[in-house]
Specification:
The structure holds 2 protein chains of 2 kinds. Chain A is mainly alpha-helical. Chain A is built from 5 helices and 2 strands. Chain A has a two-stranded parallel ribbon. By secondary structure, chain B is mainly α. Helices cover 67% and strands 0% of the residues of chain B. Chain B contains 2 helices and no strands. The longest helix of chain B is centred in the N-terminal third of the chain and has 35 residues, at 5-39. The chains are: A mainly alpha, B mainly alpha. At the A-B interface, helix 1, helix 2, helix 5 and strand 2 of A face helix 1 and helix 2 of B.
Chain lengths: 188, 76
């Protein structure tokens, strides 16, 4: 790349990063609102949920963040096969998380979405978060497919960085939701 | 100045190593949260501090928030 092309790309990259972080900050306000709703409506109580399942899906999301970080590092160093492999593992763990929350926890929870504040809080928090996980998995699939088609290079892979930051954001949100739904207060 | 192959390999190892270290920290803290939440539910609210601590690790080392404040000289 010429000096001008590098400078142009660097400027564009800086703007992209700022835009992505502004989006993440604005999106986090919705999650903060949901968490405050939980604190106000449930107070010192928490839904009686399956603890083993809760910690398992949390572990899956933490592990997925680890593999996403590896994928990004590998792409930054031009190791495309490792990028493709790590992104695939991230997607698989994200899908397992979705199955754990929506496919299992939603089915075995001793209350439904219409069963008072507890149901409303639990299903809106996990539902909104699961929607973000789903969009994250779709983003990762696009990035994974682009990686296989040699779209990214070690110098130019903004798509990978953006998908990674978004994925880690979803992980950070769950760190608080896990405490709010599974650990805070006494189970009722 | 172009990086040598050794420098690139070394920076890759450092970055991957940091990722492992962060995962271990997150794992230990999450297991601690789980134990406190199950054994002593009234202390659950204090776990928000642990969650905040964990999120700082992810935001710093995985989301690389520092890149926002650096002068960009190319890169990704």
């Amino acid at each position: 790349m010429s000096v001008h092309a590098v400078a142009d790309y660097a400027t564009k990259l800086a703007r992209n990063r700022l835009g992505l972080w502004l989006f993440i900050i604005s999106d986090s306000f919705v999650f903060i609102g949901l968490f405050i709703t939980r604190v106000v409506l449930l107070g010192p109580n928490r839904p009686d949920l399956n603890q083993a399942l809760g910690v398992s899906v949390t572990a899956m999301l933490l592990l997925s963040s680890f593999f996403m970080n590896r994928a990004e590092v590998e792409m930054a160093h031009g190791n495309r096969p490792a990028f493709v492999r790590n992104t695939f593992i991230t997607m698989a763990l994200g899908t397992l998380f979705l199955l754990g929350v929506v496919g299992i926890e939603w089915q075995i929870a001793p209350f439904g979405p219409a069963d008072g504040a507890q149901g409303a809080v639990f299903y809106s928090m996990t539902g909104f978060h699961a929607f973000h996980v789903l969009t994250g998995v779709i983003l990762l699939f696009i990035v994974w497919n682009n990686g296989r088609r040699l779209v990214y290079t070690s110098e130019k892979h903004w798509g990978v960085e953006a998908a990674a930051v978004y994925w880690h954001f979803v992980d950070v949100v769950w760190m608080f939701f896990y405490v709010g739904l599974y650990l805070m207060g006494s189970p009722v | 100045m172009a990086e040598t192959t050794d420098q690139i390999a070394s920076s890759r190892r450092t970055e991957l190593g940091a990722g492992v270290w962060v995962l271990l920290m997150l794992g230990v803290l999450t297991f601690g949260e789980f134990l406190v939440g199950v054994i002593a539910p009234p202390w659950g609210s204090a776990l928000l501090i642990v969650a905040a601590f964990k999120s700082v690790f992810v935001i710093t080392y995985y989301m690389h928030i520092g890149r926002l404040f650096k002068e960009n000289k190319g890169g990704h």
